[in-house]
Every structure is written in structure tokens, then in C-alpha cells.
Write a structure and sequence with these properties.
- The chain is of the alpha+beta class.
- The chain has a single domain, classed as Alpha-Beta Plaits, CATH 3.30.70.
- Helix content is 41%, strand content 25%.
- The protein has helices at residues 13-25, 38-44, 59-69; strands spanning 5-12, 31-34, 49-55.
- Strands 1-3-2 form a three-stranded antiparallel sheet.
- The mean pLDDT is 85.
Length: 75
């Protein structure tokens, strides 16, 4: 079953949270999902990453916001 959400970007949690705030401020719905999970990150000591998804109809606007925040990213 398709949810209509498409991948936007995967970032370390700190940067993903900043992007989430920008998406909220621009009224763009989103879903964030942990890439590794808490158990794995605690065991290995790596930083959690979040995968951010947005509805397909918001993808272009969200991509533009990603480019503003992270100019070196290729989305």
C-alpha cells in the first residue's frame, strides 16, 4: 500500500531535527524514521541518523529548503 510519501534526505539526527523544524515552519508534512535504532546506536556508539520523507506533492518545495540549509547536498 502506497502512503504517497517519498524520501527527501537522510541526515544525522541533529541536522535532521533542524530540517524538521524548517519543514514545520513551511507547513510541509513529513515523517521521520530512525535509520539504525536506539539499541544499535547505544551498542556501537555511532550517531543516529533519521530518514525524512515528505508527501510527493511537497517534494520540490522540500528539496529547495534542503538546498538552502545544506547547499552541498545532492537530493
Amino acid at each position: 500500500m502506497s502512503t504517497g510519501y517519498v524520501p527527501l534526505i537522510e541526515k544525522e539526527a541533529m541536522w535532521a531535527e533542524m530540517l524538521i523544524e524548517v519543514l514545520k515552519n513551511n507547513h510541509i508534512p513529513y515523517v521521520s524514521q530512525p535509520v539504525y535504532g536506539a539499541g544499535f546506536t547505544l551498542k556501537t556508539g555511532i550517531q543516529e541518523r533519521l530518514s525524512i520523507l515528505v508527501p510527493a506533492q511537497y517534494k520540490e518545495k522540500a528539496d529547495a529548503l534542503v538546498q538552502e540549509l545544506f547547499p552541498s547536498e545532492n537530493t
